[in-house]
Amino acid sequence: MSDRTFPANLPKPAPIVDRPAERAWSGRLTPGRLPSGARLLGPALVVLVWEAASRLGLLSPYTLTAPSTAVVTGYELLADGTLLPHLLASAVRAYAGLFLGVTAGVVLALVSGLTRSGEALIDGVVQIKRAIPTLALVPLVIIWLGIGEAMKIFLIFTAVLVPVYINTHAALRGIDIGHVELARTLGLTRAEFVRRVALPGALPGFFVSLRLAVTLCWTALVVLELINTQTGIGYLMNRARDWGQTDIIVVGIFIYAILGLASDAVVRLVEARTLSYRKALGA
């Protein structure tokens, strides 16, 4: 096309210049492009350095056993039937508290985020709990519930509830006002508004909170299983400490790490499938 095609008073269009460097940076900075296994690179490097330090004699086995030794010990505990009952006991406690905390956090966030009276009654209480460490409640909860399973599940529940509430509530408050006005224009009932607008709008914040929650439930459990328990991974680690068995302690650390990573991966997978519509819309 010649220059005479354009009117004299309009500038000529800028030529299209291919910039490979810009394309490269664009690809690196685009979210979601990290390969699925790339997140394991950091932990794998830590384990390799740890193993090398142990083999070179820089780490004493009485201070910190080598990862390879811990793997062998873990296999032996699994083979002789010692490990599985303790793992199941820990999983029941962690996921029972997780389920209760997530359910209560979402319900409270909906009530507080969608009604003024709910926010007035609920938000301040949750913010106070947010400022109080979970471990500070241990003596009081022991008086209320004793030192059995109910105490441990309740404290995991309180630890999980706060991040679920905070992030879901923030997502609800951040819903586009245009969507709210559109729902009013269409005459949606409150139940329809919650189902079609509020819940879909809060999903991104909810998944952020769920990723925090699946980690917190195991973090809280580590400490709680040191309190008068006869089963659980924490109990195994506590008993191993008394006998100086660092290999069993490292086995417990590996189990917590693997369960935490696996739980986070499951949440990521569910999040990617649930929010796949955002990618289709270019969100």
Automatic annotation (TrEMBL):
Ranges for domain ABC transmembrane type-1: 87-267
UniProt GO cellular component terms: plasma membrane
Keyword line: Cell membrane, Membrane, Plasmid, Transmembrane, Transmembrane helix, Transport
Membrane topology: Multi-pass membrane protein
Record CDD domains: TM_PBP2
Family designation: Belongs to the binding-protein-dependent transport system permease family.
Described function: Probably part of an ABC transporter complex. Probably responsible for the translocation of the substrate across the membrane.
Official protein name in the record: ABC transporter permease
Native organism: Sinorhizobium mexicanum
